[in-house]
Write a structure and sequence with these properties.
The complex is a heterodimer of chains A (331) and B (155). A five-stranded parallel β-sheet of chain A has the order 2-1-3-5-9. Chain A has a two-stranded antiparallel sheet with strand order 4-8. In chain A, strand 6 and strand 7 form a beta hairpin. Chain A is of the alpha/beta class. Chain A is built from 13 helices and nine strands. By secondary structure, chain B is α/β, with parallel strands linked by helices. Chain B has one domain: Lumazine/riboflavin synthase (Rossmann fold, 3-Layer(aba) Sandwich). Chain B contains four helices and four strands, in the order E-H-E-H-E-H-E-H. In chain B, helix 1 packs across helix 4. The chains are: A alpha/beta (331), B alpha/beta (155). Chains A and B meet through helix 6, strand 8, helix 10, helix 11 and helix 12 of A and helix 2 and helix 3 of B.
Chain lengths: 331, 155
């Protein structure tokens, strides 16, 4: 409890893009309820604060921490441990913290390749060949920057997480509903769900929320969305457009398919799905309309990057977590 | 290590054909390598690639998937689904750095006990020559990813 009597709130970003913070601000006037009910003590995007301020807080003194971003480097892991220690309720907020999201696609490549691409390819203007080092000595002393881990991890692979809130980013109406719930809990009008629950999302699949007409799926050729003008009413998968709806958790009201674009899987695994990619492979392979191995291979050529397609959001949270080249650190 | 590497292989068998083929191999006293642990499914069409990934992530060096010959599925067409999933899974595994030879699909009827035994022996030798998979992300939580890496500059 703060000196003003309000419970404390924190939000942090690790390896992420900042979209989660924007989604929180997108709850519009509801943000005033957050301010009315909470004392915001740490939120690097929105206000100035130092890690040492958090370190000085009592353990468990922050009631609610929304942690977005994956664990890419030592700093991410340090703050994850710190906020775990200081928070009563730690929420893995958004796809990166839940399952790795885009940053985790780096798990397909060794760290050296990632650095080479970032600093030494033709698109980078780096005439002196400067390459960042975790420590560097200057006349004034030693400088340190956080070292990268060989692979990106999810938040719950590093610390214990109380609740999971998926989405890239979580939909604002879902965030508003969760904030409403927490405020009700504070006033003794509701109870928290059991720890480990996925909050701010549905329990079913995106297909379940999708209004498109479904009939028989028999695919002879996969189409890429940029090459076709999809029929506005028929299931996109039936039109040969790879859609992640069958394995993805509901909660977004099937926004993308409604807009004529396939589901890309940002709400993570649906209830009971252990590995999104495997479940998508199951679904996609079963609707290919051929029993001839050669023809099946030809149809599968229409999926140029299966790992990137099926694990777009979920590589760190998948069963394999990273490619061999990724976890070995070298090719 | 001078000992021969003994691969651990998880085998998924179909209740109507390959499981009976394995049974037949047993009753006929046909010997095959003890490296494979068979799990019976009702049909190869039940095989979710999740099972294969879980086996590999959990310490298996290879996976054997078996089903009825094309056209002979007890549930009409489900073995074709297994075939398609297998072909797609192989592509994904290759991207993940897992040699596709570690996962093998074999059709075996209930009468083909000897052939199934031969295929198992062949797979064990193939995987023995590939070496252990030792996937880093074993399900027991030993990640081995804790240490941050310093990327050295190539001068």
């Amino acid at each position: 409890m703060s000196s003003n009597g309000k419970p404390k709130f924190a939000m942090y970003w690790a390896a992420s893009c900042g979209g989660c913070e924007i989604a929180v601000l997108n709850i519009h006037e509801k943000i005033l309820d957050v301010d009315a009910n909470f004392d915001v003590v740490f939120w690097p995007v929105a206000m100035d604060a130092k890690y040492k301020d958090v370190e000085a807080m009592e353990d468990g003194s922050i009631l609610l921490t929304l942690f977005n971003g994956a664990i890419r480097n030592e700093e991410n892991a340090h703050v994850a441990h710190l906020l775990r220690q200081k928070s009563k309720i730690l929420v893995a907020f958004g796809s990166c913290a839940n399952e790795g999201c885009m940053p985790a696609l780096a798990n397909l490549s060794p760290l050296q390749d990632i650095f080479d691409t970032a600093y030494h390819t033709i698109s980078t203007d780096n005439p002196q060949g400067i390459h960042p080092q975790p420590s560097f000595t200057v006349p004034e002393g030693d400088l340190y920057i956080p070292a990268m881990y060989p692979v990106v991890r999810t938040l719950d692979q590093v610390v214990k997480v109380d609740y999971y809130m998926p989405g890239c980013p979580p939909e604002s109406h879902q965030i508003a509903a969760v904030i409403d719930l927490v405020i009700k809990v504070l006033h003794g009008e509701a109870q928290l769900p059991p720890p480990g629950t996925v909050i701010g999302a549905g329990g079913s699949t995106v297909c379940d929320e999708c209004a498109r007409k479904r009939d028989v799926k028999a695919i002879k050729k996969f189409e890429r969305i940029q090459h076709v003008m999809p029929d506005p009413e028929i299931c996109l998968l039936e039109q040969g457009i790879l859609c992640s709806g069958p394995a993805t958790r509901s909660g977004c009201n099937a926004l993308c398919p409604a807009a004529g674009s396939p589901c890309i899987g940002c709400y993570g695994p649906a209830e009971g799905v252990l590995d999104v990619g495997a479940r998508l492979m199951t679904a996609v392979a079963s609707v290919i309309d051929s029993n001839d191995p050669n023809e099946i291979e030809r149809i599968l050529d229409g999926i140029p990057d299966p790992a990137g397609m099926f694990y777009r959001f979920n590589l760190a949270g998948s069963l394999l977590r990273a490619s061999k080249a990724g976890w070995q650190g070298k090719v | 290590m001078s000992e021969t590497f003994e691969p651990v292989i998880i085998g998924f068998t179909c209740n109507w054909c390959s499981y009976r083929a394995a049974d037949l191999a047993g009753t006929a006293r046909v010997k095959y390598a003890p490296n494979v642990r068979l799990i019976r499914l009702m049909c190869s069409g039940r095989l979710d690639p999740t099972f294969v990934l879980k086996a590999l992530a959990g310490g298996a060096d290879g996976v054997l998937i078996t089903g009825c010959h094309p056209g002979e599925c007890h549930y009409l067409e489900q073995n074709y689904k297994a075939l398609r999933r297998y072909l797609l899974l192989r592509r994904t595994l290759t991207q993940m750095g897992i040699e596709p030879q570690r996962v093998k699909l074999v059709w075996a009827s209930a009468a083909e006990g000897v052939r199934l035994a031969e295929e198992i022996n062949k797979l064990v030798e193939e995987i023995r020559s590939l070496g252990p998979l030792k996937w880093k992300t074993s399900l027991n939580g030993d990640l081995g990813f804790e240490k941050a890496e310093t990327v050295e500059v190539a001068a």
